[in-house]
Amino acid sequence: MKSICLIFQIHQPYRLRTFRFFNIGEDHQYYDDFQNRHIIRKIAERSYIPATNMLLSLIREYGKAFKVSFSISGPALEQLSQHAPDVIRGFRELAATGCVEFLAEPWSHSLASLKSKEEFTRQVIKHRDYIANQFGQTPKTFANTELIYSDNIGKDVYEMGFTTLLTEGARHVLGWKSPNFVYCNSINPKLKVLLRNFRLSDDLSFRFSNKTWTEWPLTADKYVNWLNELNSDEEVVNIVMNYETIGEQHAAETGIFDFFRHLPEAVFARSDFGFSTPSEAVKKYQTVAALTVPHPISSADEEKDITAWLGNELQDEAFGKVYEPESRVLESGDETLLRDWERLQTSDHFYYMCTKWFTDGSLHKYLNPYASPYEAFINYMNVLSDFMIRVDNSVSLPDHSEMLTEQLSSSYINPQSKSDTIIHKKPKTMAKTIATKAKPAAKKPAAKKPVAKKVAAKKPVAKTATPAKKATPVKKATPAKKAAPAKKATPAKKVVAKVAAKKPVAKKAPVAKAAPKKVVKSAVKTAVKAAPKKAAPAKKVAAKKPAVKKVVKK
Amino acid sequence: MRVLMFGWEFPPHITGGLGTACFGLTKGLVKLDASVIFVVPKAYGDEVKEGFRLVNASDVTVDLTETEQAEFWNRIQYIEAGSNLIPYVGPEEFERIITEEEKEVIDSRKQHFSRQFTFSGKYGKNLMEEVAQYALVASSIAASTKFDVIHAHDWLTYPAGISAKNISGKPLVVHVHATEFDRSGENVNQLVYDIERYGMEAADLVITVSNLTRQIVIDKYGIPEDKVFTVHNAVEPVNRPELEGVQKYVKEKIVTFLGRVTYQKGPDYFVEAAYKVLQKDPDVRFVMAGSGDLLNRMVRRVARLKMGTRFHFTGFLSGSDVDRMFAMSDVYVMPSVSEPFGISPLEAMRSNVPVVISKQSGVAEVLRHAVKVDFWDIDAMADAIYGILKYEGLRKMFVSYGKSEVDNLKWDKAAAKIMDLYHQAVNKM
User: Fold this and answer.
1) What mean pLDDT do residues B159-174 have?
2) Considering its fold, how many domains does chain A have in total?
3) Which DSSP string do the residues of A203-261 spell out, in sequence order?
4) Which domains does chain B carry?
5) Across the interface, which of B372, B386, B394 has its CB nearest the CB of A21?
6) Strand extents, DSSP E, B250-353
7) Residue B55 dihedral angles phi and psi, to the nearest 5°
8) Cβ of B383 and A20 within 8 Å?
């Protein structure tokens, strides 16, 4: 039997409020709370809630035969919990049916995969653990922000423990090939790659309610006919769209709900297709070929590349700047700082700065708070300037380690994140970061001396530690768990020293050894435990739960 | 296509954007094989004449016996403009004009009998009288010249256009560069308004320099929509290698306002925005170039805000000084309250200067690579200025796209559109 993978994506950014330059340094409230809440509520009522109810009733009706999957970004999850807990409750119900797979993605819908492997990994792990905690299933399938994918990203994702990945069936990559098969990563064939069928997906997400479209009105029966018209060899059709497609992009009166309500019936009655989740699909079907994607692709626009977010001067400056303080943010151990940094990485901010669609911008103006890319840039840079001042201040705080002793129990000042930070960077950028770090140190000698030392200490690590990535977590897991909070608060220098000490061990452990699945998995698991707090000890998670529940009850 | 065109000024004798626009447009038309007879009152003799005939209206003898013209003369003879509403004139010039004109009024009356008029060619106190006389002259030019279409620029020449149409029976196109609402806000001079409306109604086609102006023509003058067409202004491409080495004598970044210091141009918003920026970053200099009736008020305001050492006034600039000012600027701001088009941002962009323009300007309709703010939104204006000064990416973006965007706004294109409209008008007859 052939499969349809029906995958819904949900993302809502934290839109920035109008933040003038005279707010820089004085005001740290960045978000347009009213607007964000309003949008979440509106979409929840028009789309998320009725759509979820519909899916629940379909699953009840068809049992295990009807399946769907979700990829929900961190900012969307957070904002829904805050403003529309009923939606989250609906997702829990969906999760409980066993017919729904939740995918992992970078926490803040960021473009970290294109910039920093460490941050990318940190965000993916954070998201995976959040999903596991919220919905009781650990994601096995990964879908990057806007389905961005390249061979290297695939390799990184496999190293995080994922075996299935979803990306765009970009025509310029596929050529004559069909998206309706299981492919694999060209560097590591163990990673299965599923491709979005953009024609059949966009028929629903873009064209469904367009009355000038020759195929309007689109019925479930007609849609199934199209599925039947596919080449008989083709096995898996991945229909991927924003969840808002149902009810928001196409309002209820367009008949979009009726379409989905009748889809399973039509599929079962009139085709040899069934419904699968991505991780089921890759088990069912043979991998047909490796997919070579040297340059990143995405699901955006006609080009299916990353030029919607990066490429013009505005985007490049903003994107470059937001990653400059990476290590300092992580070292600061300041939760709000980290939170804001994650939110500033959200891809939407760069999307608003795109100048490609000066001519036809209808799609891109959707929920875009800015009249022009220039306004988007100026506003973002004002916020970022303020953020940078906070980073500088937090790093120069002499006694912050004391203040944060408790939080550090699952510390950001942990050897792994540090060594990784440096490893990934190319020599040039590394030199730059070091230079920028050294500068403030020179300016405020008293407070910052230690920082300068740290940098010095890191250098050798960076040069040699490449193979260490996988091996280190295993080692670290133990000390991290056992060490009492008090000990962890000790100056970062020591921690670095530890890493240095571990280095030789790490080197000896070659990549090949880490390759067998089990080893990798366990390594990653321990890494998860050792690393950032979201990933962290069960204790913490437990502590968080009641809070969430309270919100839900409200 | 032979065009009889009525203007009021022509480079190098210009007091506003009208002359520059007429010149660019005429050049564009000539390239399309049109022959243009451009009538200006009082040609000085040193105007640029590139392939078209410039007729000095003062040289034309008028025959007053033609009854129709006498009637026309009677109709508008008594119209006199309130002097505070004279367009495009700064206060010092205005004062000078008034004293000069007082003598000239007597002269022209004398000449009235000798049936030849001397035009001052400057906007002045007896503007209305000159407008009327110009109309009279127009009819005699129209009677003695062959042409296919009449093109009149702004209200000053509408009566001339109308009388030429009446004499020749040829179609009339009036070109609205500004309306009385742009010049005077809501307190319009009824006489000027009436002439404008009369001209638009008599015209076969109305051309506006922006959709903003088009809407005003439709809403406030009651002109049918299908008769009004927008043709955006353009800018002459220039290459001035001598400006490459323009020296900036201060190390601070320079933010410039350039234009008449009048209500319409919104200079006060620029001053307030400057204050906001300087509070955050004192290492910026602001320059207000130009003069006008609000200049003294601006100087006082700057003094009161105690930013005199950072905010400079240059007075009226012309010709190469304007280009030099642009070359020294890091940001150009046009906070106009109401601007039918506004060509100066294009000149700034041509010199690779990023611009902040008000949404209430026609030029905002054609520019993408500019920051657009509401004229009253001082915070947004200050923020845009600050952003351009501080964030390198923004400046780079403007440099890489701004100039090419402006270079694409060619008079040739505008002229081609107008040529189509000429044909449309001729076929309508």
Assistant:
1) 90
2) 3
3) HHHTTTT-TTSTTPSP-HHHHHHHHHHS-TT--EEEEEEEGGGBTTTB-GGGTHHHHHH
4) 2-234+411-428 (3.40.50.2000), 241-407 (3.40.50.2000)
5) B386
6) 253-258, 284-289, 311-315, 331-334
7) -100, 125
8) yes
Does the annotation count A101 as an active-site position? no
**Contact present, B176 and B232 (Cβ < 8 Å):** no
Residue A458 in domain: yes
> Residue A8: what are its φ and ψ, rounded to 5°?
-105, 135
Domain boundary (A361, A396, A431) is at A396
Asked whether residue A470 carries a pLDDT value surpassing 90, the answer given is no
Q: What percent of chain B has pLDDT over 70?
A: 75
| Residue A475 placed within a domain | yes
Q: Average the pLDDT over B394-409 and give the result.
A: 86
Q: How much of chain B, in percent, has pLDDT values that exceed 90? A: 37
Give dist(CA B253, CA B326) in Å, integer: 12
Within a domain: A422: yes
- What residues of chain A lie within 8 A of the CB of B276, using their CB? 22
Query: Between chains, do A374 and B397 touch, taking CB under 8 Å as contact?
Result: yes
Which of B192, B204, B196 has its CA nearest to residue B150? B204
Q: Tokens representing A134?
A: 């919220």
d(CA A240, CA B149): 60
Q: Which residue of A has its CA nearest to B370?
A: A374
CA separation for the pair B157, B138 (Å, rounded): 9
Cα–Cα dist A259/A238, whole Å: 17
Q: Is residue A24 part of a domain?
A: no
Q: State the alpha helices, DSSP H only, in A465-508.
A: 468-482, 485-488, 492-508
Q: How many Å apart are CA A123 and CA A298, to the nearest integer?
A: 19
Q: Is residue A445 located within the same domain as residue A378?
A: no
> Beta strand pairing status for A182-185 and A192-196?
antiparallel
Average pLDDT of every residue of chain A: 79
Q: Which residues of B touch A360 (CB under 8 A)?
A: none
Provide the β-strand partners of residue B285: B254
Count of CB atoms within 10 A of residue A464's CB? 16
B394 → chain A, closest CA residue: A314
pLDDT band, very low/low/confident/very high, at B243 (cuts 50, 70, 90) = low
Rounded CA separation A387/A340 (Å): 8
Which of A146, A168, A248, A342 is labelled catalytic?
A: A146
Could you tell me which residues come within 8 angstroms of residue A397 by beta carbon, excluding any fewer than 6 positions away?
A447
* Same-domain pairing of A373 and A469: no
Q: Is the ipTM of this complex over 0.85?
A: no
Q: Does the pLDDT at position B88 exceed 50?
A: no
How much is the average pLDDT of A114-136?
Answer: 96
Contact across the interface for B383 and A378, Cβ inside 8 Å: yes
Residues A509 and A538 in one domain: yes
Same-domain status, A421 and A388: no
Whether A551 has a pLDDT exceeding 80, the answer reads no
pLDDT the model gives residue B46: 61
pLDDT at B333: 97
Q: How many CB atoms lie within 10 A of CB B24?
A: 21
Residue A365 banded pLDDT, cuts 50, 70, 90: low
The two structure tokens encoding residue A446: 């008293």
Question: A131 versus B120: which is more confidently predicted?
Answer: A131
Structure tokens belonging to residue B22: 């007429």
- Do A314 and B370 count as a contact with CB atoms less than 8 A apart? no
Of A395-404, B29-38, B403-412, the least confident: A395-404
What are the tens digits of pLDDT across the range A291-327? Answer: 999 999 999 888 899 998 998 889 999 999 999 999 9
Please say which residue of A241, A262, A291 terminates a domain: A291
Domain that holds residue A201: 2-15+32-291
Spell out which residues of chain B touch residue A310, defining contact as CB-CB under 8 Å: none
Which tens digits make up the pLDDT trace of A202-250?
999 999 999 999 998 999 999 999 999 998 899 999 999 999 999 999 9
